[in-house]
TrEMBL record:
GO MF: hydrolase activity
Pfam family, one: FAA_hydrolase
Gene3D superfamilies: Fumarylacetoacetase-like, C-terminal domain
Stored SUPFAM superfamilies: FAH
Keyword Metal-binding: yes
Keywords assigned by UniProt, alphabetized: Hydrolase, Metal-binding
Entry protein name: Fumarylacetoacetate hydrolase family protein
Domain of life of the organism encoding this protein: Bacteria
Keyword Isomerase listed: no
Fumarylacetoacetase-like C-terminal domain location: 27-233
Amino acid sequence: MSYLFPPVATVGLPVAGRDAQFPVRRVYCVGRNYAAHAREMGFDPDREPPFFFCKPNDPESVVPVAAGEVAKLPYPTQTANYHYEIELVVAIGKGGRDIPVEQAAEHIFGYAVGLDMTRRDLQMKMREMGRPWEIGKAFDYSAPVSVLHPLAQTGEINSGAIVLTVDGETRQQSDLTHLIWSVSEIIANLSTLFELQPGDLIFTGTPEGVGAVKIGERMVARIDGLTDLVVDVV
């Protein structure tokens, strides 16, 4: 098959202990999945059904970061309030629809650390107007992701510290046990809305403490048992 111009390349994430990369198909994100973060955003943290939004899966949006590397994120246009949101990222290795919670872990390939970078001022403006969030969430370089660690190596990850520092100062600090909806519940719920496929990524939500970063600052995102994600804003 021929194309009028070259198609967009597939993004590949590095995988711990393997030469082959994980090809990214779709990027799903869960909104307000920690109670304290829901409160800081002005919402009741009651356990209502999760809601989802997406980020692009192209090389201009998903930023793979290998072990020992420092990603360079250009400060985005049209914002004066550029926020970090550290998240556990779940990579799907086996597809399915209407997946039972009890079987959800069978569909996980592995885990990584991710940042859901956000143009907060644009997101809030769109929210106030009742419009979609895309310009606040789905922009270039909005989804840096660390090395993937296969489930076969880590086992299921349902607990562990999740911490983000900016220039060495702790800004976000919580534990994965504080997720309102667990990883298995997220997978089960999302699979009722979309047929999940190998290559899908799920950003599972961020804890409290979100805030702005500026040019010249360094973010270090850490989750117990996974490779750190280090990012400079340039």
